[in-house]
Amino acid sequence: MRDPELVLGRRCASALAAVALDDGQGPLLTYEYARPRRHVDDVAWFRFSAPDREAEPLPPRPGVRRFDAAVVRIDKSREATTLALVETSACVRIGGRLFMYGGNDEGIRAWDGRDGFQTVDAGGHGRVLLREVQDEALPEHGGHDHRYLVPWRRLRRSRPGLSERDWIEYPGCFSIGGDDPGSALLAKTLDSHPPPKGKTLDFGCGPGFLCAALRERGLRSPIVALDRDALALVALRENVPDVEAVLGSTPADALRHGLGGFSFIISNPPLHDGRVRDRAMWHALVETAPSLLAPEGELRFVVQRQVKAERLLSQTFKRFSALLTTSRYIVWSATK
C-alpha cells in the first residue's frame, strides 16, 4: 500500500493524521493505515502482511463496538473495500466516525455520496471521506475464529486439474470469480513437464489454485504455501487442507520461518502492489530461490510476456528455459 502522503499530498495526509491522533477521541481502529498508537486501546488491523507487521483476516473481536472512530484505506476491489468498511463499522460505537481515504486512480471518488460518505478533504491525487456510524444491519457473527467470515464466503467452480471442483474464495482474493489464465497456463506445464518430486513451495499462493493443481496431479510430497493476504490463506486451508500455510510478504519470509531445501518452487508472482505495477516481488523470487532450493531443484513461474526475465535468470541460475509461450504469458523454468 502506498504511503498516505503519496496518495493525499502532505497537507491532506497531515490533516487525516491529526484527526486520527486527536487526543479528545477514544480508542481508534485502523485498516491498512500505519500510524503510531495514541491510545492504549487503539488497534491497527492489517489484512496484508509486511516485513514489519503481522496480518489478520478480520479485526480482533469482530462485531464488538469498542472504538470511537475508524480509518479505512480503500482496498484494491470494491467488494474487499466493502468488507473492510462493514467489519470496521461493526466495531465502532453508534454515532462514531468512519473515515476512508484513497487515491483518485483507486476509485475513491466513486464512494463520495455513497453509503453516507462525504468528502471532507482532498489533496494530492486522493481524498478523505467521512460518515457517521449508524445502527445498520450487519453480517451475522457467531461462534469464534473464522466462523465470523461465513457471511463473506464465496463458492464457485474451478478447474485446477482435469475436472471441475468446488472452490472457496473471499472478497479481494487473487483471481476472484474465475481461474487466472496465467496460473492455468502454469498448471498445464505440470502435465508436459512433470515437476521434481519432493517438498514444494507455492509462493504467492492466493486461495491455492496451484497447490490444488499439484495435488490433483498426484503430488503427495509436503507443500508449503506462502502469501501476504491473511484472508487468502483462510480460503487456501479450505480448498487444500493438507498444505502448510505460511503468512509472509516476500520469498525471504520462507527463510525466516526456517524453510528451505525445496525440490520445486512454483509461482504466479504478484506484479502489482495494490493497483501499482511493481517488479520487486518477481525479482525477489528469482534472486532468493537458489537459497530455498535443494541441489538440482527447480523454480517454475509464469509472468506476462512483456516482463523481461532472461537477464536476471542468467545472473542467478545455471540453466533456464521457456517451457510455454503464448501471446500473453511465458512460463519459465530454472534449475540450480
Overview of the molecule:
- With about 325 residues, the chain is α/β, with parallel strands linked by helices.
- It has two domains: about 5-130, 3-Layer(aba) Sandwich (Rossmann fold); about 155-335, Rossmann fold, CATH 3.40.50.
- Helices cover about 25% and strands about 30% of the residues.
- A hairpin with a 2-residue loop joins β13 (about 270-275) and β14.
- The longest helix has 13 residues, at about 280-290.
- The model is unreliable at about 140-145 (pLDDT under 50).
Helix content: 10-25%
Q: Count of DSSP helices?
A: 9
β-sheet strand percentage: 25-35%
User: Average pLDDT across residues?
Assistant: 89
- Structural class by secondary-structure content: alpha/beta
Task: Supply Rg.
Answer: 21 Å
CATH class (first level) name of the largest domain: Alpha Beta
Topology:
Blueprint: H1 4-8, H2 10-20, E1 28-31, E2 43-45, E3 67-73, H3 78-89, E4 92-103, E5 118-123, E6 126-132, E7 154-158, E8 165-169, H4 181-192, E9 200-203, H5 209-216, E10 223-227, H6 230-239, E11 244-247, H7 252-256, E12 262-267, E13 272-273, E14 276-277, H8 280-292, E15 293-304, H9 310-316, E16 319-325, E17 329-335
Parallel strand pairs: 1-2, 1-3, 3-4, 9-10, 9-12, 10-11, 12-15
Antiparallel strand pairs: 4-6, 5-6, 7-8, 13-14, 15-17, 16-17
Helix pairs in contact: 4-5
